[in-house]
Amino acid sequence: MSTKMTSSVRRHSDHFEPQDTDPHEQRRLRGQLEQIDYAAYVANKELIGHTLTGLDAASLQKLAVLTAGARAKWGAEALRLAHSGSPVTPDQVARLTAARTAFDELAEVYEALRRMVERGYVVLK
After folding, report:
1. Cβ pair 69, 99 in contact under 8 A
2. Residue 13, SS3?
C-alpha cells in the first residue's frame, strides 16, 4: 500500500496491483478495473454535477478567503497562548483545537472541490 501526502493529510492508496505474471490475465484484470473506475467517474460526474450546479470561480475564491482566515485565526490563537507566559488550560487547548479543526475542514473541502473541477465532475459557471 502506498502513501500519498496531500496538504496535511496522509492518504493511503489501496488500489489492487496484480501479482500474476500472465500478461493475458493482467490485461483482463486491468480491463475490469478500468470499467470499475469508469463507473465511479460517471457516478461522480452525474451526482456531483447535479448537486454543485452553482459552483463558480467567485465561490471558490470566497472559500479560499474563508480558509485563509481560519488559518490565520488558528495561528493567532497559538501565538496568543505562547505570549501569555502561562500554562495552557484545557479550555485554551479546546479553542486552539477548534480553530485547527475549522482550518483543516475548510482546506480539505477546498482541495476536494478543486479535484472535482480538475477531474471534470463539475464545470465552473
Report:
1. no
2. strand
Neighbours of 24 (CB within 10 A): 8
* Chain segment 22-62, per-residue pLDDT in tens: 888 889 999 999 999 999 999 999 999 999 988 999 999 99
Q: Classify residue 112: in a domain, yes or no.
A: yes
How far is 32 from 16, CA to CA, in rounded Å?
12
- The phi and psi torsions of 2 (rounded to 5 degrees) equal -95, 160
* Domains held by the chain: number: 2
Q: Which pTM was predicted?
A: 0.73
Q: Nine-digit cell at 65?
A: 478567503
Residue 66 makes CB contacts below 8 A (sequence gap 6+) with 106
In angstroms, the Cα distances linking 70 to 57, 67, 124 are 20, 5, 25
Q: Which helix (H) or strand (E) holds 101?
A: helix 90-118
Residue 58 and residue 114 in one domain: yes
C-alpha cell at 5: 501526502
C-alpha count within 13 angstroms, C-beta hemisphere, residue 50: 5
